[in-house]
């Protein structure tokens, strides 16, 4: 596998998968969100956070607030940040009403809270976040490049510009969110993106990076042959 400068984070909320990825040094950190927690069947957020930090004490983990108003978000952030020094508190750049949360982001960063600002889609949002956070306080700016691509728009121009904006302030890292395929890891690495979050199926493909594609025809046909055998199907 080729050497990567971009850090690879696993995106998910299955505690056993997280432990396995951490123990096997498959990734550099972890991110979670409400949708992934619901999918994983998490019933007790606080217990999940406690268990995750206990199992993964020295790799970055992002936990997201659940509230939609600033006051409650602030209270949730105070709870989440205290689970460990490796915890980043995820705050969306806007709430469900489309109201900017930059004031809360600025306030928490000023208090040295490590933030992962999420649901970012525009360069204007990136600039607002970078302007708002405190110099030297670790901060992730999570731009949803995959979801931008899902609209038929090439996210690369935005991501390249976002790299430059994030590099302008110490402590800020650009995170490529909503990874769709392994090639996104290469793209993120080549433009100088700091972090990319990958779902489990992409993490499993990481060892394929740098593999000789000339081998793939034979491997593909072997796969067909295996499936033919197990299917019991026949032409003659």
Automatic annotation (TrEMBL):
The keyword Transferase applies. GO terms for molecular function: aldehyde-lyase activity; transaldolase activity. It comes from the Bacteria. GO terms for biological process: carbohydrate metabolic process. Keywords: Schiff base, Transferase. InterPro entries: Aldolase_TIM (IPR013785), TAL/FSA (IPR001585), Transald_staph-type (IPR011861), TSA/FSA_arc/bac (IPR033919). It is an enzyme of class 2 (transferase). The keyword Manganese does not apply. It holds the Pfam family TAL_FSA. Its EC number is 2.2.1.2. PANTHER family: FRUCTOSE-6-PHOSPHATE ALDOLASE 1-RELATED (PTHR10683:SF40), TRANSALDOLASE (PTHR10683). This is Transaldolase. It comes from Macrococcus brunensis.
